[in-house]
Amino acid sequence: MATKVKWKSKADQHDYPAAADYLSLVLDPDDVDKAVAALQHADPRAYKAKDLLRASRLPLLPESDPEVMKDLAKIRDGEVLSPVLLVRGDARHDLPLVVADGYHRVCASYWTDEDAEIPAQIAGMK
Predict the structure, then answer these.
(1) How far apart are CA 84 and CA 58, in angstroms?
(2) Number of other CB atoms surrounding residue 66 within 10 Å
(3) Close Cβ partners of 52 (under 8 Å, ≥ 6 residues apart)
(4) Is 78 left (phi over 0), alpha (psi -120 to 50) or beta?
(5) Tens digit of each residue's pLDDT (9 = 90 or more) over 1-44
(6) Which of 68, 71, 91, 115 has its CA 20 to 30 A from that of 61?
């Protein structure tokens, strides 16, 4: 039987600055601030790990990746994980979903159960 991944109801406070650091590489500063503010107010919605990977166009990291291994150990130990933080993509403009924080958690969850629902706080950019 697969291990069930346990999730918190909202992202950890330290995840928002981490998301901002990453987003500063792909967005201008004003858009980073808007995206992080939207993430902080977003209620989590559930998505399957395989769908998050497909929409983001990110590869599945191997179970041997050091950060994935840390998250798999947390899952095995029954620790509660923080929801992932996302910025919505736009298929009309060939823009993928951006995983602002939580890529390793997505991969670890996939390795645990690719169909399991992952809570994610998602911001849209207009």
Answers:
(1) 14
(2) 8
(3) 84, 86, 97, 99, 106, 118, 120
(4) left
(5) 467 899 999 999 999 999 999 999 999 999 999 999 999 999 99
(6) 91
